[in-house]
Amino acid sequence: MNAKPFVKWAGGKGQLMGELGKRLPSEILQDGVIPRYVEPFVGGGAMFFHLQGRYEIRESYLSDNNADLILTYEVIKKDAQRLIDELLEIESFHLQKSEDERKENYYRIREAYNSQKIDHQTMSQEWIERAAYFIFLNKTCFNGLYRLNSKGLFNVPFGRYKNPTICDGKNLKAVQDYLKDTNLFQGDFTDSKEYINEESFVYLDPPYRPLNHTSHFTNYSKEGFNDDSQKKLANFFKETDEKGAKLMLSNSDPKNQDEGDKFFDELYSDFNLERIPAKRNINRDASRRGKINELIVRNYH
Ligand SMILES: C[S@@+](CC[C@H](N)C(=O)[O-])C[C@H]1O[C@@H](n2cnc3c(N)ncnc32)[C@H](O)[C@@H]1O
Description:
With 301 residues, the chain is α/β, with parallel strands linked by helices. The protein has two domains: 14-65 and 187-298, Vaccinia Virus protein VP39 (Rossmann fold, 3-Layer(aba) Sandwich); 68-168, Adenine-specific Methyltransferase, domain 2. It has nine helices and nine strands. A seven-stranded mixed sheet has the order 5-4-2-6-7-9-8, sandwiched between helices. α8 (227-242) links the parallel β6 (200-204) and β7. α4 (67-95) packs antiparallel against α7 and α5 crosses α6 (125-140). The longest helix is centred in the N-terminal third of the chain and has 29 residues, at 67-95. Bound molecules: S-adenosylmethionine. The site of S-adenosylmethionine (SAM) has 22 residues, from α3.
């Protein structure tokens, strides 16, 4: 069975995989082999799951700065069955309740998650519970968002779903299989540098530069990802290009909002930058449906 992302993730690349998949380095498309795969903003992992289902990845390094997301990947890798058992219990308790009681149960678990003190370094029984809370919150919160307030507490409200799938055991087992030989770590994207060499294919999907001033898609962590972070990432792109790695980066196109915005065109002027249509921001009223592009930057053709 092909595994798919086990969380809904803002900016998840599921819908763009067709376009991204066509733009992989030609060696991968021809030989079917990826000697080393590095993904420093792995999120829900749409690209990793796509590649793992189609190509032979010999070595992989997946990371993100969201500590609980990585903890959950680790738990699935090491003990998917215990996580499934825990989630099934949470699921049956939740789904037998009325809408109002589900809401109450959601806030009870959110509170338990926020007050849990967790050692992210050493795996323990508490990791199983935390991973289960993490998946439960992701599947039942508003829009599957992950947002922390300035105190680092998860503050997304309850989402209304008729029958949310909280435990997809089959998929979690398939994900475990995909993760078998991966190296997972929590950290800033710059921490990946030491794993990148001339054999590497690196996919970079940083938090979006907001399309307008009211969308705050970049709030995955309490630090945020501002224009200075985007510039630091462009430097990282240049440095790893010099190591001989093949690089692909995606981002939202600020030109969707402001034709004159050349932010990324300038940052990546030495590289191959393309704009492809994306299906985001769909407005029911066709006349108000703007053309939304996504940016893809590569250091190869
Ligand atoms: C657009 S999402 C990636 C989505 C992913 N491609 C998918 O298909 O689900 C960006 C990710 O970057 C992570 N992130 C934010 N700042 C970071 C940083 N400084 N270093 C590493 N990861 C970071 C967020 O936690 C989030 O998971």
